[in-house]
Structure formats: structure tokens, C-alpha cells
Amino acid sequence: MCSSPLSAVSRPMACRRTDDAAAAAAGLAAGGVWAFPTETFYGLGCRIMDAAAVQRVYQLKHRPVQRPLPVLAGSMDQLAAVVRLDEAPALLRERFWPGSLTILLPVLPQCRAALPPQVCGPDGKMAVRLTPHPAAARLACLAGMPLTCSSANLSGQPAARTADELAPALLQHLDAAHDGILVCGPLPQGGLPSTIVEPLGQRRLRLLRSGAVAPQQLAAAGFTLEDAPDRP
After folding, report:
1. Could you tell me where the beta strands, DSSP code E, fall in the chain?
2. What is the CATH number of the domain that holds 193?
3. Does the reported pTM lie above 0.85?
4. Whole-number Å distance between alpha carbons of 106 and 198
5. In this structure, is residue 32 part of a structural domain?
6. 231 in a structural domain
7. Total domain count for the chain?
8. Residue 4 is assigned to a structural domain of this protein
9. CA distance 200 to 206
């Protein structure tokens, strides 16, 4: 089942663009949804504890609601405030963060009630990464908490590497008052999205999505990979 699309009578309006991360962070604090560059592609996100904004991300992307949103942070302290970092092997964090490796980790019990279910899955885990992109990291730090960070595209459509590649069908529903596009820092590299893994203990990882960090890199670092079970 997909989330309900935005009203067909929504009026297109000029989408705000800025190179000012502080202005973008202010928009996020006011409940906005922003497109911003990451190390892989342009992401579309909001503050992780803003339930209404999280729902708008799903609506804007036409994303199936059963697919939780990945999360991006600007610092290790931001992640330590919401997930159990000790569940990820220290070597994994040291070798691949900051970087394009997303790790599925348990949410801290005291944070679960504040997080929308689209961010904290039914198993109480969140898919998180520490971004190496300076603009994305600064935006998350200025926003005061990690950000949801799904690719800034309509679900199933190609991801955007530049602001000019963002789909008009997505942009026309952004609210000029609080939403916008952050255009600063290096361009995303493109290629593959972040790799997603789940720690299983004793240097075992379940590979949930192949991506920018190749399985060979994880194996070379001493980790054993297991494929995710097939879903019905």
C-alpha cells in the first residue's frame, strides 16, 4: 500500500533554492522538507522526530509506507543520542564511517516514543549512516538531530545527482514557505546508493542492500556477509 498522493489541486510554485545551510536548517525546524546533496545522490529529508514532515516525504515521493526511511547524521554524537552504536562493531564504524555504509541499529528505548514508525521500524531499529558530505553533515548538525534521507526522486525513478536533475513532479509540491533545495558543497558522486547492513555479532553482517561499499571491501575488513532472507 502506498501513502496517499498530495492533492491534485496543489498549486505549483517557485521552489526556493539556497546555498545557506542555516536557512535550510531553519526551514527544517519549521516542519519543512528539503532536498540536499549527499555523497551519493541528492537526498530528500526532514528532522527524524517531525512526524508530519516524515509523512510528507512519503507523499512527495509516492513511497510505499512499509519501507522505513534511512537516516543520515552529521556527527557520531547525533547517532549516539538515538541508536545503540555499541551494536555495530567498532572496526566497522572506524573503517567505513563517515561513508556510504548504512547500518541497521536498535533505537534507544527512551527515543522510540518520539520517533514516527516510518523511521523506527516495527523491530525497533533504524537504518543510519554518518555522512562524509560536508553540506549534508552541516545541515544535520544545524538542524539539531539526524535527518531522514531517501533519494530525492519519485519512488522507482532515477536518483538525481544535481539540483537540476530533480523531478519537476516532485518539486512542484514543495512549500515555498518552509521547503526548498540546498545547493552547496561538492556534487554527489552518483553511481550506487549506500550499502545497508545489519550486524549479527562476531563480525557477521547481513547484507540488506548492495551499494557504494562493495561486499569485497567489507570482506577485506574481516567481516562475513550473509544475504538477507527472501521476502514473500
Report:
1. 17-18, 34-37, 42-45, 71-73, 101-106, 125-130, 147-148, 150-151, 180-182, 195-201, 204-209, 224-227
2. 3.90.870.10
3. yes
4. 10
5. yes
6. no
7. 1
8. no
9. 7
